[in-house]
Amino acid sequence: xxxxxxxxxxxxxxxxxxxxxxxxxxxxxxxxxxxxxxxxxxxxxxxxxxxxxxxxxxxxxxxxxxxxxxxxxxxxxxxxxxxxxxxxxxxxxxxxxxxxxxxxxxxxxxxxxxxxxxxxxxxxxxxxxxxxxxxxxxxxxxxxxxxxxxxxxxxxxxxxxxxxxxxxxxxxxxxxxxxxxxxxxxxxxxxxxxxxxxxxxxxxxxxxxxxxxxxxxxxxxxxxxxxxxxxxxxxxxxxxxxxxxxxxxxxxxxxxxxxxxxxxxxxxxxxxxxxxxxxxxxxxxxxxxxxxxxxxxxxxxxxxxxxxxxxxxxxxxxxxxxxxxxxxxxxxxxxxxxxxxxxxxxxxxxxxxxxxxxxxxxxxxxxxxxxxxxxxxxxxxxxxxxxxxxxxxxxxxxxxxxxxxxxxxxxxxxxxxxxxxxxxxxxxxxxxxxxxxxxxxxxxxxxxxxxxxx
Amino acid sequence: xxxxxxxxxxxxxxxxxxxxxxxxxxxxxxxxxxxxxxxxxxxxxxxxxxxxxxxxxxxxxxxxxxxxxxxxxxxxxxxxxxxxxxxxxxxxxxxxxxxxxxxxxxxxxxxxxxxxxxxxxxxxxxxxxxxxxxxxxxxxxxxxxxxxxxxxxxxxxxxxxxxxxxxxxxxxxxxxxxxxxxxxxxxxxxxxxxxxxxxxxxxxxxxxxxxxxxxxxxxxxxxxxxxxxxxxxxxxxxxxxxxxxxxxxxxxxxxxxxxxxxxxxxxxxxxxxxxxxxxxxxxxxxxxxxxxxxxxxxxxxxxxxxxx
Lengths: 454, 308
Prior knowledge:
heterodimer, A: mainly alpha, B: mainly alpha, 14 helices
């Protein structure tokens, strides 16, 4: 097989690496963008390391309200779907093959049919039930939470059923026979033999159904009606403008997943080692300290502690200085462009004194710079100002505007801003936000200038 | 049928007691009848009704009509505007494309997972496969918007390195959408193929190799026939989920390309026309199922292979 020949193996490994790069690339990129202060989620250009997006995420009211709705729905779905899935798996295990395949087809269909269809059929059906029993629009049949649970259980229970079916395949029915022969009632046989055997499956089914319920969008977006769950709130947030707080959410989920995955791996290894006998695994389980250190609970606590410390450290991290620098940098670029514009206008005026109308326009917008963060507004208002490639232009130090002409009086107050011009010139102008480059954001100074109508 | 149900019930009573048997019967009834069958019937029923105000429901105006289906074929003006039909066909074609991409992507990995990787490597590979899918569907689409947006990573890097002289609009070209959909359903393609390929006896491959078959030939003649039910199962799931996807097209779809589910959504939520929305949902459902059954006939795969 491919393991035997060198080039084939290299191809296989290379392909595998590429594949996993594709799998993890988006996650890595999201993680990195969560810590960039740029208001559009991006890696380059890098602005500031910041943890502020986590705060933005947590203070998003709609998402947090949706989170509670989602938790309620998730618990409801787990409580119904897991017993339903168990019932389905047990029913399939006892009936005749013909009925079995028919029932299996019916039960598995909701997994395959589009979620949109499930959502619509759920609200249409329960709506007509509501009309039939005469409950008004305020009744339970028009309640988003109830409808969402009903709609999600339809297909989520099938996931649980598949898990139980896989587990039941390994069940030895003679165990039940033996219990019955020894005098157990059928009920006791169920409670004491079958349910304990299924316990791991119940746990994983509960976990999977909770996740499926939480994640679901296609069905929920219909059944939730006017309310919103976490996922639908998230979707409308993404549709109407994105910012890195979504990346921050991804980071949180990834961190939780990593903690879960590592703990799971520790549990698996421990189980393996215990099965093979303690001595088999090199010394780790031989000493008491090693046993404690390698125990999944220890590893879990350690990971949680690391995560907790990271969160505390992260929440104390202050990126305002760096952000102010970025703003100042943009303001500086902006100011320089304005200054160039003024100089050019002055030259124009000198060359053609007939067009005497002294440009008052720049004066109108300049005092804005006197606020500490004036550059931010300046950059936003004149798109050309913040965009790149003004490198070809002469670069006067922004803090010391040419002290002659009409520029002086307006720009002078800007030097009183807390951050002055300290960070002005040494920064690469091309790195300023390109997403601001709305149409017309060409580097030509004419576009970047304030309205300079004669 | 009734007889079979009764026998099954008796077997349960004998084995697990009356209480458990009654519970199973009740749960099956609620699940099959109240959650699966009746809602579908209600949806189809609604799709044949006119869009009457709530006060007139059940009244004389609330009769059956084909107008919702006629509107799909003939367009809003009734003069044969095939806008919606085009969208349906484009959705199906795109879903097929995504399915093919996933088969091509996943077959080698599933094969490696089943026959080359062992021990820790295999476990890490499986873990690596699952991990990206804990992330919310919405966030996955969001990630692809970061990557493919007009100021996204690829455009930034491409311009910075001089490979691109101007940003390429991946969103309008649907590159972002297709990548995101293919990415989302990788897991659902890999595991069915893996399950099928794992059953293959390695000796068969060795034998074919000893007799001089090249890698391609081994796969075409030995591995693929064994993998076929798995591929069919995975392809069905991926196709159905892609055709029924709503979030990714909403987030990543270009301005000019609608997904058929978006039409359903618009009729339902934006236009408030439930019967029309139900009709479009029915059209989507029937078309998808017909297509899948047709494909299974063409490739001679039994329906029972799905979902196992």
